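To the wet lab folks,

You asked to see what we're planning to order before we commit. Fair enough. Below is the target structure as tokens, and below that is the sequence we designed to fit it. If anything looks off to you, flag it before the synthesis order goes out.
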């Protein structure tokens, strides 16, 4: 009888432990979602500005037409229906294209509209870098939680899967474009 009571108490304590493991895992997932929503807001703003930028420089940029066409191909997607991973991949490619475009633009003298849009994109890139760090910190905390024993045994039962940090996606894109 006494052994049954002890077993029952251990079972209750174990179930409480599982509840807290699940709750903490969900909290980390929520943190990742919130961080990505903030990042996504800035990525979408930049995504929309790229079209304006391309229209602004189209006439002055005949010799870089292929680069403009490649960037235009990237911004033709319906951004809202893309998955998180697709957004990260797409924006990595846009970043690479913009870096090449801005390097080529340095040689040209363009109007105030272009400079205004470029400054907006530069400011957004700075903000994106900051929010990317916050997103990556949330992902790293979550991934570390999933790998720490004894949680790692139970997080797989709850189907918590590791997430990918933003830099890994961007680096894969840059390496594949070389």
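Sequence we intend to order:
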């Amino acid at each position: 009888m006494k052994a049954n009571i002890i077993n029952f108490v251990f079972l209750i304590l174990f179930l409480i432990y599982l509840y807290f493991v699940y709750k903490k895992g969900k909290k980390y997932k929520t943190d990742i979602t919130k961080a990505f929503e903030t990042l996504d807001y800035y990525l979408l703003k930049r995504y929309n500005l790229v079209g304006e930028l391309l229209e602004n420089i189209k006439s002055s940029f005949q010799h870089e037409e292929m680069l403009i066409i490649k960037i235009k191909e990237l911004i033709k997607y319906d951004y809202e229906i893309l998955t998180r991973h697709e957004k990260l991949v797409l924006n990595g490619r846009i970043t690479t294209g913009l870096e090449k475009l801005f390097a080529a633009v340095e040689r040209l003298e363009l109007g105030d509209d272009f400079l205004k849009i470029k400054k907006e994109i530069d400011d957004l890139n700075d903000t994106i870098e900051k929010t990317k760090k916050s997103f990556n910190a949330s992902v790293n905390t979550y991934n570390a939680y999933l790998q720490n024993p004894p949680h790692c045994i139970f997080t797989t039962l709850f189907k918590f899967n590791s997430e990918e940090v933003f830099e890994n996606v961007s680096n894969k894109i840059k390496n594949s474009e070389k």
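Structural context that might help your review: The chain has a mean pLDDT of 86. The radius of gyration is 23 Å.

Thanks,
Computational group
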